[in-house]
Amino acid sequence: MANTLGPHRNPVLSGRLWILMYHRVLPRDDRRFSLEEPGMVVQPETFQMHLRELKRHFDLVSLADWVNAKDNDEPLPQKACAVTFDDGWLDNYEYAFPILKEESAPATLFAVADKIGTDFQFWPNIIVGLMFCDGIGAMRDNAVLRSALSSCDPVSGRVSGDQVASVIKALKAHTDLDIFHALESIGWRKYCGEHLGCALMGWQQLNEMRGSGLVTVGSHTNTHRRLTSSVTLPDMEYEIVDSKRKLQRETGDSIDLFCFPNGDYNQEALDMVRTHYRAAVTTRRGINLNRSANRHELTRIGIHEDIASNRRLFGARISGWV
Fold first, then answer.
1. Which residues form the NodB homology domain (predicted)?
2. Is residue 190 part of a domain?
3. Total domain count for the chain?
4. 85/82 Cα distance (integer angstroms)
5. Is residue 1 scored above 50 in pLDDT?
């Protein structure tokens, strides 16, 4: 029923914008698929199915074009949908980009500006690597990591996705800097660095996507720090303002869209984003009303393989039922 009912199928529903939040696109037989935290990946064939379904039921739009139209009081599509990718993963270039071109589908890619073209790994992925690659013993040697492990007490060699998610959730009680310091203290690279491989795309790949005319680049900060009260104002300016400058310098484009890492931000961060960007997206789940949408706190719907692997599940997800 979910693939035939729901607000995305309702012909009388009007004046709304769906924004879909993707992270990674990987085939199941790619080693990186098994080393990703739960809720972060779709398979290429699933992503292509999503785009084809969206084209059947929505005006598939560039988020930047929708924002421009709203700013200029121009007519907005009755049922619009914008596709977004967070972080700047290499697999977005390898697997998502060819599908975007094949389907002539626009998308926005929110890049972590200071990490593009580097060997940077996000700390949740390091945790996944450690837990699946015999690094649990080393994690117990650090107080911060040990306290997170106590939430699920995994045994090396028999780790579930739910246990990984539990550890990552527990670690979010700490600052990003404290987590990275803890990981460096145990020498995480010797346990899983080789297995994780290259995570992020380079500038050449990012600019190729941008140059296609299908992909708009936005900022996802410089280092992916959560913009909470633990971040000083100078550091917040570095994350929000300097990332915009760097992306503009590297792409030659105006960078007008922003994405809050992990969906976390305080009032100071929101005010700074309002000053420097035309719009911003959150991780809060919802559908945006054309008339009343807050351009700097736009809601999105997170999409991943576990909840959207077929048409029925995907329809239920974007309808708000799953």
1. 79-322
2. yes
3. 2
4. 10
5. no
